UniProtKB/TrEMBL annotation:
Name under which the protein is recorded: Apolipoprotein D
An example Gene Ontology molecular-function term: lipid binding
Top-level taxon in the UniProt lineage: Eukaryota
UniProtKB keywords: Pyrrolidone carboxylic acid
Record flagged with keyword Ubl conjugation: no
Pfam families in the record: Lipocalin
Gene Ontology BP term (one): brain development
Upper taxonomic lineage: Eukaryota, Metazoa, Chordata, Craniata, Vertebrata
GO cellular component, one term: cytoplasm
Ranges for domain Lipocalin/cytosolic fatty-acid binding: 23-88
SUPFAM superfamilies cross-referenced by the UniProt entry: Lipocalins
Entries under Gene3D superfamilies matching the protein: 2.40.128.20
């Protein structure tokens, strides 16, 4: 996987050998605790895929922060109705389980 950063625009590009060019736009960040990121691409000109993330530096974000992030997505004509939150409970245990699994390979 290859990442390229564009310093003149809030954009990140990833290149995965089997997938097409994928741009990521940083729509908002406070540079401290949260970032709102969006990506979309056409896959082999067959179908369109888009992703949106609300990324936090902590495992939980205040509801007001999540709502503000969703408002930014909506202002950019991005559908938030299908967004789901990622559970952040037991992350330490999952990391330990993964480490045990990896060391047993």
């Amino acid at each position: 996987m290859h990442f390229a950063f564009f310093y003149s625009t809030p954009k990140l590009r990833s290149e995965i050998p089997v997938l097409p060019y994928t741009p990521y736009w940083i729509l908002y960040t406070d540079y401290v605790s949260v970032a709102v990121v969006y990506s979309c691409t056409d896959v082999f000109r067959i179908f369109h895929v888009d992703f949106a993330w609300i990324l936090g530096r902590s495992r939980t974000l205040p509801e007001s922060t999540i709502q503000h992030a969703k408002e930014i997505l909506i202002e950019n004509h991005i559908d938030v109705s299908r967004m789901i939150s990622s559970p952040q409970e037991d992350c330490d245990r999952a990391r330990k389980d993964r480490a045990v699994f990896q060391s047993s390979l």
